[in-house]
Amino acid sequence: MSPLNCSFNDVDELMKVLQLAVHIPTFILGLVLNLLAIRGFSTILKKRWPDYAATCIYMINLAVFDLLLVLSLPFRMVLSRTQVHFLSFCTMVECLYFISMYGSIFTICFISLDRFLAIRYPLLVSHLRSPGKIFIICCSIWVLVWAGSIPVYSFHGETEEYKCFHNMSDGTWRAETFFPLEVFGFLLPLGIIGFCSSKSIHILIGRRAHTQDWVQQKASIWTIAASLAVFVVSFLPVHLGFFLQFLVRNGFILECRAKQNISLFLQLSLCFSNINCCLDVFCYYFVIKEFRMDIIVHRPSTASLVLQDTMITRTEGREALSEEENPSPEFQ
What residue stretches are annotated with the G-protein coupled receptors family 1 profile domain (predicted)? Predict the structure, then answer.
């Protein structure tokens, strides 16, 4: 088949079925789980302020971005199947989708950096983790992703026939537009998250023989590992697909079969990356478990209090017996 007559109808028809199979359960689970996560971390924030304020604010911010992605899914399913006559509405939905994606990426990046600094330099960065400063960082993430969504408004160019999330203009795939998005939107956060996560896990494992709070340290390691795994699984295939599509749109890949495979891979990656809004729940689970472990570790148990009382009683008894056997000089 000639590259000029290369058809993607079979790919699009297959994706219509897969999107229904993936997006409907993702929407239902993501809506419920992220609302529960926001409620849960808000409750912890109120009850344990300011002990867990920094982490809770970050987690609530991440859950809000995930919720935004969930709410965009029904519109994406409908708008990507039909031609839309209101480009502004299509652009708004596309903006919400990419804002939620890159908002999640940057939030996870700052969570990893914050955790690494807290583990490596706990005394030096304690003043940097105040609730007010963390809130400012989260607001800055929102401003950054909204500003970064400006190129979305030119995704479809001046074409009259378009579908949402399809038929992107050639300008969208120019090197000066694509590479800043790929580098600053994914590769740089990936490098920061990978470095901070590996260093944090290495430090915590190294402290195993010198800490009495290994249960809490173990919960922290699982939290870091789960966050890193969710990030890589969710966003690495998508940005690899973006790069391959960049090669297609700039004439580096011309064979029709390769183009069809790349289109299928990109759409599959975007489809399954939406499950990230549900996978983040594993991070929430380990964070909450870590909070509970921290409370248990730093709160004396009933058994320890009983043991402490017993030791005090035995000490007092030995002292009293010693005084009876060796009376003080004033009674001799």
Answer: 33-284
- Which are the contacts of 58, defined by CB distance < 8 A and separation ≥ 6? 107, 110, 111, 114, 134, 138
Instruction: Please provide the distance, in angstroms rounded to a whole number, between the alpha carbons at the two ends of the chain.
Output: 116
Global pTM reads: 0.80
Measured CA to CA, the distance from residue 181 to residue 44 in angstroms comes to 35
Residue with tokens 């399809």: 166
CATH number at residue 139: 1.20.1070.10
Instruction: Provide the residue type at 284 as one letter.
Output: Y
Q: Look up residue 167 and give its DSSP letter.
A: S
* The pLDDT value given to residue 299: 43
What does the alpha-carbon distance between residue 238 and residue 185 come to, in Å, rounded to a whole number?
Answer: 12
Q: Are 168 and 155 in contact (CB under 8 A)?
A: yes
Model pLDDT, residue 332: 40
CB atoms within 10 A of CB 111: 23
Q: Report residues of the chain scoring pLDDT below 70.
A: 1-4, 50-51, 81-87, 152-163, 166-171, 210-216, 285-332
Whether 39 is covered by a domain: the verdict is: yes
